[in-house]
Amino acid sequence: MKRKGLVAMNSMIGLQRLACALLAVSLILSVGCDAHPTGQVSGQVMYNGSPVTDCVINLFLKEKGAGATATLDSGGKFTFPDPLELGTYIVFITPTPPVAGAPGTKPTKPTTPRIPKKTSDASTSDTKLVVKAGKNDVVIELKD
């Protein structure tokens, strides 16, 4: 009888150790999930006092090779749907891509944005956006 009691006690201690180990691993993994703070970004793009419309705003975080895009609406407003890593991004604007029409019709032509040429390419744009933790509601003014 004593032997059965010892086996049961050893099994119980083994289960407790296993439970503690699993708890420790899950805590470590859950802490690692929030290791990189992010920012939500929305706002408006302006040029010469007017909204830049019907284009795409592109952000490029050169140090990490990360980027994101969002569509500018008719008021020049945008919202990036996913949180972005913190850092200083290069901002550049590109035309909205053409949309395919019904079979047998021509796709729409991309618009030619009226913006400084340098802001249409990541390698020449000097427009920057600093993404901070939390909500970032910004107005981006393109300059000649």
Secondary structure blueprint with pairings:
Blueprint: H1 2-33, E1 38-47, E2 50-51, E3 55-61, E4 66-71, E5 77-79, E6 84-85, E7 87-95, E8 128-131, E9 134-142
Parallel strand pairs: 1-9
Antiparallel strand pairs: 1-2, 1-5, 1-6, 3-4, 3-7, 7-8
Plain-language structure description:
The chain has about 140 residues and is α+β, with helices and mostly antiparallel strands. The chain has two domains: about 1-35; about 40-140, Immunoglobulin-like (Sandwich), CATH 2.60.40.10. It is built from one helix and nine strands; from the N terminus they run αβββββββββ. The chain has one helix at about 1-35, and strands at about 40-45, 50, 55-60, 65-70, 75-80, 85, 85-95, 130, 135-140. A hairpin with a 4-residue loop joins β3 (about 55-60) and β4.
The helix count comes to 1
- Which bin fits the share of residues in helices? 10-25%
Structural class: alpha+beta
Low-confidence stretches: 18-32
CATH fold-level assignment of the largest domain = Immunoglobulin-like
By CATH, the superfamily of the largest domain comes out as Immunoglobulins
The rounded Rg comes to 26 Å
Kindly report the average pLDDT value: 82
Q: Please, how many domains?
A: 2
CATH class of the largest domain: Mainly Beta
